[in-house]
Amino acid sequence: MKEVIYYIGIGINFFLLLILLSKKGKNRADNILAAWLFVIAIHTLTFIFTLQPVSLNNIHLIMGVSAPFPLIHGPFLYLYTAASTNMFPLKRRTWLLHFLPFLLTVILLLPLFLKSGEEKLNIYRTGGNDYRLVNIILVILIWLSGLIYIIWSFVLLNKHKKNIGQQFSYEEKINLNWLRYLIYGILVIWLIIIIVKENAFIFGAGVVFVTLLGFLGIRQVGIFSQAEKVLPDFAETDNEPTFEVKEQIIPPEQATNNSNEMTGADENLSKEPSDSINSQKKYAKSGLSVEKGLEIHQKLIQAMEVQKLFTEPELSLSMLAEKISVHPNYLSQVINEREGKSFFDYINNLRVEEFKLLMTLPESNKFTMFSLAYECGFNSKSSFNKNFKKVTGQAPSAYFAVHSGNE
Question: Which residues, in sequence order, are CB contacts of 313 under 8 Å at separation 6+?
Fold first, then answer.
């Protein structure tokens, strides 16, 4: 009866897998999740075999079959995180290398797999002394694999958080906090593997984990559309992205001279020297001239002051670039250098200033504070509170009490 929970886990696996395969508009992350769910189901099934009384009839399903599987979950976690954050390795041989430890372990255990049933049964009864060293090495590899890939996944999520600041004016639905919680979940499982070392607890926690993994993963949609893959940092590649560009791109041979002019041209920038150096390094290969940068900056200012495009709640860099007919990469560079902010901070600063302006109008007295915030482009109370305090140093309620004229 104790294996019932594991059968339930396998049933949940295949149920979620069926839902995922029938999902419309699947992306790369969905495909990776589907493969991972299938592997988890098979791994759980191999563990169930080990709970049965050992005999000559089932020894082939018990002896060493589940040993390599722990080495495959770390790579799947990393690749799923990479796909969800749009930082998936572009070269197939690069991401296939992550499964090399799993394949090498299978090869290492191949002599054991090929033994006859009688030989395996004898090894099982004697405690597997001949494979003790192999087992120690395998345990160490499993520990290292789990911890390394968990840390690596957290690194990708932190990088993703910085990237969305350059691409989006909002964080809701795209901050991937749910994935962060899942990584914490698999960290707990790995700690159970290292500290508790009890398979019943490990696979029991696995059933809970896979339920959350499938439920949360299936609900997600792609964060970056193809049109929004505009920053080279978003993919692990040295190749520049290609676009249908409305602006003239200066030939690469002119890029160095232009970038040198660009880094010292704007006297209005109030940056620390280290920031200027970092900016110069970041855009060292940019084809954006000083004159073109000033032109884009004026377009940007006009669009914000006249059209108030910042009031669009889900405004993204690519959307804004399309509206003012500018290459997204150039627009990002202009905002970073001439405004000294990320796209996220730039847009939300404008929203905060618009909110402060609306508060001074007599007709605003009939609206609540959050009604005004939504009017300015904020799409949640938490986003408004966070960004307002970041800009003004005060909570919006405190600021509103002082400046609304209602004190």
Answer: 170, 374, 377, 378, 379
